[in-house]
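We treat protein structure as text, and this decision shapes the records that our systems exchange. Because each token names a local backbone shape, the row as a whole describes the fold. An entry from our holdings is shown next, in its original layout:
>
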Amino acid sequence: MATNSSPLSVSLLSSLLLILLAILSSGSLTISSHGFSIREATVAELQLAFKQNRLTSRKLVEFYLGEIQRLNPVLRGAIEVNPDALRLADKADIERKVKAPRSLHGLHGIPVLVKDNIATKDNKMNTTSGSFALLGSIVPRNAFVVTKLINAGAIILGKASLSEWANFRGLAPNGWCARSGQGKNPYVLSADPCGSSSGSAISVAANMAAVTLGTETDGSILCPSSYNSVVGIKPTVGLTSRDGVIPISPKQDTVGPICRTVADAVYVLDAIVGFDRNDAATREASKYIPHGGYKQFLKPYGLNKKRLGIVRNPFVVNGSVVTKVFEHHIQTMRQRGAVVVDNLKIANIDDILNFSASGELVTLLAEFKVSLNSYLKGLVASPVRSLADVIAFNNKFSKLEKIKEYGQILFEAAQVTEGIDSDVKEAYSNLAKLSRNGLEKLMREKKLDAVVTPRSNFATVLAIGGYPGINVPAGYDSNGVPFGICFGGLKGTEPNLIEIAYGFEQATKIRKPPSFKP
């Protein structure tokens, strides 16, 4: 936009752009190939279209690149696209024609955006966690999950934006990073997109990608999925490798899918789980992976005979629109055969949700410094080699994209820590005790298959114990802002959670395409 545009013309152009986005997203313009509508298509529908020669991977990639070009100037859901995406699409089309073994995989020829803290080793895309400090750095190899996606035939479409440094730098709003600017919620542009996998959720919700990958330390998959009306699976810690992922906490970090449907998320989960010798946590967690994968648990009546615990305090706020919808969903779950155990309490829940009282903040700060320094030292080339270097970079370029305004209070607090000392070990012990006497005790005593709460505020309970959770779209508030429902369980209970989440999704089918309201 020209720098000499008047404020009136800028406002008018912005309004016209918002109107155009709303028209295009309403379905009045359908992007299709041989009569097949790409927008909102699931992975299974895309694969069927490939099989019936109604669609090619090239056409599919061209569609998503076009949507990124059209929508991203407003939504800021992607940081960069893969310049090789069309070449890789052509390769996938050839593999399909010659019936190459890889073409039989469910993600073959499917474009995926990966969060910008997940390494891609192609020397054409950056891995920066949204920060200029890592621009131009060179990673030693693809992240393990990226290699798994490539082996499954997926096309790496590009890098999704994120709350810079996975929301662990300072006081920036959710969805903001220096490289891409402020991410916008595609349903209500002024609403919170949540963090830190905001770009992954924004992009897949707005049909800028078929599927996406995010990461979570505490809420960063579940929260943006809730706010952007998509499905997010936060796996058991160690079920997916963190090798090649810019870290915060080895105890809590996990990588998972963010997609438009439960089935799509499960296809991605199946592709990325597994043992990795470069991530010790995967050795223990790999025992949870079921023979035959997770797709087998996509059962339409998965709610039947499941014991679901409702924890109201402090997650359910009486009188709100969200609560009214949540109560309706509880009845739906009962009608679908679930045994609902209501009004349950988690011991010491106030302490669990208090970062300071629980010890979570102490462990995250210490782990972040140690693990980030290790990651930076392992890069082939990088402008920064330590957390201290990153802090110095931000101080030097404090006028760059609001870095000074938003600060780096968490960086500075982490820098003064001294490794895994006695205070950190004590905090670990307290977190384990809170989990053991809290969620674990509740679920075992009540024989629950899952705990159910509205929105994503339950994420901290899951985070400190390394437990899995799934967010499914559940409704929209009076302003049109989406909210989800969270199903959480103990380590390795993904099969149960997938049955429950898929059963709920099929019974309700809440999700609708974004409206791009101002």
